[in-house]
Each structure stands twice: as structure tokens, then as C-alpha cells.
Amino acid sequence: MATERELNKRIKSIKNISQVTSALAAVSASKASRAQRQVEATRNYADKAFEILHNLASQPEVEHPLLTKRAEIKNAALIVVSGDRGLCGAYNTSIIQRVETFIKAMNVPVEVITVGRKGRDLLIRRGYNVVATFDNTDSPSILRINPIAQIITEDYLSGKVDEVFIAYTDFINLVTRYPKVKQLLPFQPLDLEGTAISDYVETFKAKEGTESSYTYEPQPALLLDAVVPRFTQLQIFQSVLEALASEHSARMVAMNNATDNAAELVEILTLDRNKARQASITSEILDIVGGAEALAG
Q: Which of 24, 35, 88, 240 is catalytic?
């Protein structure tokens, strides 16, 4: 058993750590609340934009390069959204595991674009083809998303890649989130039935009851040149917001759990310290009694 002095040092150290984790939990709770409001504020807009673009794309006379499915898939691109920092439980590990499973299920080469240092470092270390990297931020904006959208749009239009996907962590609430891979380009539902990636990819699905009638000015074909690239940016932006809210909520939960575990460990160590103190006092009393008996003898 450790001595009383050693146990006191451990208790003090754990209390100091619990103060740090408690502060991190409070900061993450504030950031998670703000990120949640951002996500919920943009979801309706993203859904409506999807509905309008789906209506545009369904026009029989409308064609656009970003809407055209390739007959043969030779290469694919994957945007991976992770965090810049740790201390958030299994958040980064979960999305990287989903990404690795997806890439292994693909039968074609996959180039990777990372958003977030944790994903970048892990994927480069494991030998994946990372072609571009971007840092994450607590204040994402469309301007920061533009370079990412430009890279994947140019690669798709040039024929360098034939499909584009994005991997991120979908935010459900402050305690629930799950990693997912979503189709980004082309903007047409992919027929994935029977393929190895069908269990990992969420493809485009039009919501029921969204067959609204619209009047477009100018013609739909002219609108698509402006709308489709902007919608691609919007999809990436929404995914980054979802991932950011998921990261902060995961860190809040992880730090709260760490604080609770520290409190439990302090209780256990305090009990051990009291036992060590009692054993030390008993030993000293026995020494005194033994010495007194020796002198009396």
C-alpha cells in the first residue's frame, strides 16, 4: 500500500486535474450551445435549397456538368471533417474509423481532403492519399469553405474524380451524434444497391411532399450555373457546422465524465489514505507500547 504522503500527492494532483476538466466542460457547453443554434438556424435553409435544386434538376430540358453521373467510376474524392484538438472522447476516432471503412470498401483510388488537424495527421500517418488540408475553426464561414468547394468542383469538372463524398459527424443533440458519409457530387441519386459502400453512404433523397411548382426567371438552365456551385458550398458548410456542434458536445460530455471520475477516484484515494494513516498510527502505538514494556521489564 502507498504511504500517506504519496496518497496526499495523488489526491492533490487529481483535484487539480478535475478543476481543469470542469473548466473545459463549462467552456465546451457554451460553445456547443452556440454551435447548436448555428446548425438549427441553417438546416431549414439548406433543406429548402436542396428542394429547389432538386426541382431544377428534374426539369427534362436541364443539363449541367455537376448533375451528370459518370458511366465509369475511375477515381473518387472524399472530404473528411474532424477536429483540431483532442479531449473529446471518441469523436475523432469514430469519424476516422468510418472513413477507413469507406475507403476500403471503394474499388477505386480515393483522394482525401481533410478539414481538421486530427484527421489530417491520422490519415497521413496511415498512408492515405491526402491532397489538401484545411484547419478547422470555431467560427466557420462560407468564405473559409470556398477553397474546399473550388477544389472538388474543379477536380470533378476536369474528370480527375468521378464522385465526391463528404464524411462528418452528424449532430442530433448534445449527447447523441454519429459519423456518416454523404454523397456530394454528382447531384443525382447514385445507384449503390449491391455495392460494397451501400452500407456507409447516404445518397440524395427527395423528401415526400416537396413536389412544389416554381416559376424561374431566367430559365432553369441559366440558373443552374449559379445555383449548383453555391449549393455545393452550402452542403460543405452545413456539414462543417454539424461536425463542429458534434465536437463541442462530445468534448463537453467527455470532460463532465472526466470530472465525475476524478471525484470518484478522490473518494477512493481518501479512503486509502485514511487506512494508511490508521495503520501508521497503530504501528506507532505498538512501538510505544513495546518500548514501554521493554523498559518495564
A: 88
